[in-house]
Structure prediction request, 243 residues.
Amino acid sequence: MEHRPAREFDFELPVGYMDDDGRVHRLATLRKMTGHEEALLADRKLRHNGGMLVTELLASCLRQLVSSADRNYLLLQLRKITFGNELETTYVCPVCGETSHALQDLDELPVRNVNGGGPPKIAVELEDGWEDKDGEIYTTMVFRLPIGTDEEKIASIIRDNPSRGMNALLARCMLALGDMPSHRREALGTKVIGDLTMGDRARIEKTFRREMPDVDLTQEIEYAHCGHSFQTSLDLTSFFSLQ
Ligand SMILES: [Zn+2]
Prediction:
């Protein structure tokens, strides 16, 4: 039998997606990028919209729909199966402005997975909290991760106003507000999220970013030439820059 190099690869997704029957699917199949995707990368319109470029790339190379929580992970795998594990990166030292190059082994990037034991929950401690009409202040919020159907439901709101879209998404995903009974919380809808101070809203966003199952792109870089070291984040768009 003739040897055929593999073009398609299966991956277990960090988050996965839930179908209409409530079953979670965590398997995704990616194929290597071809000339079709090279054309996407070269498309001037897409190059100015990183989010849309990623959507188009994944839509083209994936066998099935995935949750947006898995995008970074899939992008990383797509890069690896197409171009290999080594990525040459350029960093600019924020202290002295020197440029330095590094070779990154993409296999070494840690992936935060959903642990067994059901879907992950994200708990946030608020500083200002939410005050009800009796003056009681609630300072803890627990969220579940957004899934595909949440994102579809809020898509039109997000298009009109990203901030209101975020309120609607967080309200859908909120599982608890302190010890408030759930019927009261649900009746409040998006009001709770909209009433939060900007500081608390930033706290929620930061906690989501830190605890979402995903590829960890944060890196501790030490610059050989100047000895400065600091944390930086790998730029996903550099994964596919045309050589
Ligand atoms: Zn430096």
Notes: The mean pLDDT is 83. The CA atoms of residues 50 and 237 lie 7 Å apart.
